[in-house]
Amino acid sequence: MATEILVPTLGESVTTATVARWIKQQGESVAADEPLVELETDKVTVEVNAPSAGILSSIAVPEGTEVEVGSLLGFLDGAAAPAAPAAPKPIVDPPVGVNPPKRAPGPVSRPAAAEPTHAPLPAAAKMLADNKVDAADVGTGTGKDGRITKGDVLDFLNRPAPAAVAAPAAKAPRHDEPREQRVKMTRLRRTIALRLKEAQNNAAMLTTFNEVDMSAIMALRNEYRDAFEKKHKGVRLGFMSVFVRACCVALKEFPAVNAEIDGDDVVYKNFVHMGIAVGGPSGLVVPVIRDADQLGFAGIEGAIADFGKRARDGALKLEELTGGTFSITNGGVYGSLMSTPILNPPQSAILGMHKIQERPMAVAGKVEIRPMMYLALSYDHRIVDGKEAVSFLVRVKEGVEDPRRLLLDL
What we know:
19 strands
C-alpha cells in the first residue's frame, strides 16, 4: 500500500515552502525516518523524513516548486505501484514522464474548481482581504504559474495613485553586460527583504543612541574567564550574556519595550524570549532564547554558542526562530561602529551593539583612554514613548558598566 508524503506543518505563520532538493530519487529504497527531501521556508531548511521503510515510487513535485502545507510531495511504496487515488491538491503538475501512483478507492471528494493563474498565495490573500483589494487589480503575480505573492501585493499597495503622477516614459529593457552575473534571490533573502520593508511601512520606527564604557565588563571577563569555563564545562564567558541580563532587568522596569501591538490591543509579556541575531550561510537568522530572564550567565552563553554553531550548519529548528519578544543584534563582530537596527515584527524594540573602540573620555576631571561601545535602540513609537526608550537604554548602560547591579537586580 502506498503512503503519501505530504508537506508537514512548518511552524508559526509559515504556510508555504520551496522544494529545495530531493535527497532520494524515484525508485530508491529508503529506511524509516530517513530524509527524503529538503524544503526551504522563509526561516530555515527543513528535512521531510520517510514515515516508514519502502521505495520512493513517485515524485509529484520537482525541485524549485513552491508548495503549501499539507500538499502532496510524492508516494512511498513497499512493493508495487499503488492503486488509483483521488487527486490531491498539488501546487504544480507532476514532472513530465512521472505518473503519480493511485490510491485505493475511498470516499469521493469533488475537486475544487481550477484556480486562475494569478490566484494569490495564502499570505497574499490575507493581505488583499485586509486592504480590500481585488486580486484582479494586482494582475499576474511573480510566483509560480503567475500566482500573486505577498511581495506583489506590497508593490501594488505602494504604487502612487495614477492621478498623482504623470504617465511614465516606457522603460527600456535592461541588457545584461557580459561581465555581470545574474543570480536568483533565495527564498530566505526575499523574505528578509519583504519583512524589513514591512517593518518600515507599518511601524513608527525611531532610534535612540547611547554609549557604554566596557572597562568593568572586560575586567570581569579577564578575571573570571578561566574559572568560568572550567566550572561550566567549556562554556566561554563573553559579553553577550551581560547585555542579555542587563536587557532583561530593564525590560521588567519598562514593559512596553517588551510588548507588541495586536490590532487595537497592546499585549504585555510577563516573560522575556530573547532573540539573538546570528549570521548563517543563507543570511541573518534570529533564534530565540526562551525565558532568558530566568537564566544565569552560563545558561545564556551556552544557548548562544549552540545557536551560533547550528546556524552555521543550517541545523536550527523552526520553533527556535519564532516567539521572540525582544532582540539583540551585534554588528560589532563585523566591525560596525554605529548603525540603526530594524525592528523584528511583531516586536516593538531591538538593541544594536557595536564595535569596542578606545576613545579619550573625561573621567573625574581627567582625560582617560577607555574602551567604548555605541548602543542603538530602535523602537516602535506607536507603543514606546521616547522617555521610556531613553530610560531603558540608560538602564542597560548602567547594568553593563556595573555588572554588580545585575546580580542585585538593580
